Amino acid sequence: MSITTVAIVGLPNVGKSSLFNKICACRFAMVHDSPGVTRDYKIAESSFFDLKFDLIDTAGWTDKTDSISKAMRHQTNKAMEFADVILLVLDAKTEVSAAEKELAKLVKRSKKQHIVLINKAEGNVQKEVDLNDIYSLNLGDPVYISATTKMGFVDLYDSLKSVLCNTEGSTDKVHLATKEDTINVAIVGRPNAGKSTLFNKLIKYERVIVSEIAGTTRDAISSNIPHNQYMIHLIDTAGMRKAAKIEDQVESFAVAETITAIRRANVVLLLIDSVEGLQLQDMKIAGIAYNEGKALVVILNKIDLINNKKQFIKEVSEALNTEINDIKGFKILYKSMLQNKSSDDILDDIVQTFECWRSHVSTGKLNRWLQSAQEKHLPPLAHNGRRIKLKYVTQVAVKPPTFKIFCNYSAQLPHSYVQYLKKSLIENFGLQGASIRIELSQSKNPYVKNV
Fold first, then answer.
1. What is the pTM of this model?
2. Average pLDDT for 379-397
3. CA proximity to 92, closest of 28, 138, 151
4. 342-381 b/e with 16+ CB inside 10 Å = b?
């Protein structure tokens, strides 16, 4: 079965993201008064009354000549090529610009079904719109709306229903898998670590703007990749700087969006710039992922720029396992996103880590492991001089795998011994990257009478 795709296009700050959010009934796209907040297009499954389609929010169309603006135009063009229906959004409070006339020509030339929307048309603003300007675009009758108040949405529905009835959905679009077969993956890291390059590499085309300017990605961008029996829902996030270096409100929104993406993810890919090395901010990001109970894969990017790779890998591995103290057994990959022709091995690692994250170990195997772990490394003595004994273990949860260990004097078992148990669990049951948890429970003394 095919599905129709609708793209929203227009100049920066005409209300595209507000319209996108209202139709999707969610705050998926970042909205701000500053023009150019959206720089890459975003896709979401949408239900607009009884109409169902994929909706694309695009970067603002601009006639500026800087590299970012050129890339934004390129992304908008790609979205229009991909779409079956185009919504051209104009601002009711401004005259039609030369850039909008250029964009209108591209919409006309595409021969796609289209609708012209006059946004911000609440109140008496409609009377001030120059209709000669609108009809000179040669794109048909406009629909007046207000994305913030939903004014004109019934008219928009009628127009959309009319064009969708005459549009055959593209047959090469892939439907989302069921929730159980979908792996939500967030790509996170400091600015300019190579997140957008990795995103483009994984989806096998240039979806996200890549630039040497740190902070180019301002909003969370997503795409779906079928791999093996799963659908991988990939999210590219804005770079997370230290709080002291966040310079504007838009960037603070971007950091909040990144944390939200981590919370919604199953697997987190933490990208680290090999040249800059491990930084405190990297450890904080890893900590957020671990505290949220997400599976974690660490990727050291730009490894091609390191001279003594063997020594570097040894030092980084030691530093990661030492500095990120509570997080044991995560995958560490060493990559060059620019040089790697294929990233299918990373998709394999995502799937493997996800399966570890939701795996369950039988109670029998766990208790045989627990006995062996204590024989290899005896628990310490309690304050009264008696040996702490770990009596029984069972898995009480998945996503992440959580194990409850019953023992005497549970409050006195040192953190270092719990860390030893974590490491041993990961190695014995192949739980790398699963962010496992261990809970300690005081076993009851059978000689104490109930009162």
1. 0.63
2. 94
3. 151
4. ebeebbebbbbbbebbebebeeeebeebbeebbeeeebee
